Amino acid sequence: MAPPRNATKNGWGPRLYPWPPPPAEAELWVPSVTTVLGVVDKPAIANWKVDRAAKGAIEMAKSGALTALIDQDEKMALSAIKTAWRSELDEAGQAGTMVHEALEAQIKGTTRPELTPTAQLILQNLNNLMSEYEVEPIHSECTVYGLQSGLEWAGTLDLIVEMFVPGRGRRRLVADLKTSKGVYEDMAAQIGGAYVHADKLVTGDDGNVIDMPEVDGAVVFHVRPESAFVVPVAADANALEWFMAARRLWAVKNNKEWRAVYAPLPAAQVRS
Fold first, then answer.
1. What angle do CA 195, 199, 204 make, to 5 degrees?
2. CA-CA distance, 104 to 98, in Å (whole number)?
3. Quick count: other Cβ atoms within 10 Å of Cβ 194?
4. CA separation for the pair 127, 121 (Å, rounded)
5. Does residue 251 sit in helix, strand or coil?
6. 134 three-state secondary structure
7. N or C: which end of the chain has fewer CB within 10 A?
8. What is the spatial distance between Cα 243 and Cα 226, in angstroms, rounded to a whole number?
9. Can you say whether the dihedral through the CA atoms of 7, 23, 113, 181 is positive or negative?
10. What are the CA-CA distances from residue 119 to residues 24, 89, 96, 171, 183 (Å)?
């Protein structure tokens, strides 16, 4: 996906946001929501990578490419199997980025980027979904900040919308577009925890900082080439605590003055 607005990243380091945001001079740099949630175990992703590696090995074996690669260089063959998931992830990520950019262009009335066939299907399903639930965007692609002293964070939410919720009428919600295979529990920590409970919001391109608007909850627009659903996620105190637990762990792991493991003890002196 395109880099989040206002965020920066140095090499392989964490993604950070300046506070206050530009054009003001930064007083501190705070970690992104996705960087913080990187400390949380995601077994579904690990299992998917294993599955793709196994399927990739089978596909290469059937084509004869695996045997040829092993004959050439066993380490290269092993690397090809272990990284087989990347091509599929890159393709899915490209489609997701295109759809995010196309949605923002629709909202702003600007030129829509060219889309792959997969991205076109996803965007069509998204537009149908938004029409069905009478979705009205209020804010889009906005940076939000949580300013709890010593445990600050920031992130870029996709949408704040007003939409029809069956049985509840029109509601104002934080909505996040996901094109992944599933909606996972840690998404509640991201969307319903960090985004809903943020303190400040930077409105679009004008850089104006306002208090985070009050919302009634959070949903995922889970859109795939073959389907589209609105999936509510928790946005209560538990969702926030889930995120804050990760934020506290991230702070400990990134404390440069603290060590978890020390140097070995010197050899014991021989006692007489």
1. 70
2. 10
3. 29
4. 10
5. helix
6. coil
7. C
8. 31
9. positive
10. 37, 14, 7, 28, 19
Prior bond to 20 cis, omega within 30?
A: yes
Residue 36, classed as helix, strand or coil, is helix
What is the DSSP code (8-state) at residue 262?
-
Please state which CATH number belongs to domain 17-253: 3.90.320
Residue 197 to residue 191: CA distance in whole angstroms = 9
* Cross-strand partners of 219: 175, 232
**What are 162-215's pLDDT values in tens digits?**
999 999 999 999 999 999 889 999 999 999 999 999 999 998 666 799 999 999
For 257-264, which contacts have Cβ atoms below 8 Å and span 24 or more sequence positions?
Answer: none
Contact of 210 with 165, CB cutoff 8 Å: no
The SS3 call for residue 257 is: coil
* Length of the chain as a residue count: 272
- Could you report the per-residue pLDDT of 64-79, keeping only the tens digit for each? 877 877 878 888 778 7
Q: Tell me the domain boundaries of the chain.
A: 17-253
Token code pair at residue 85: 């998931």
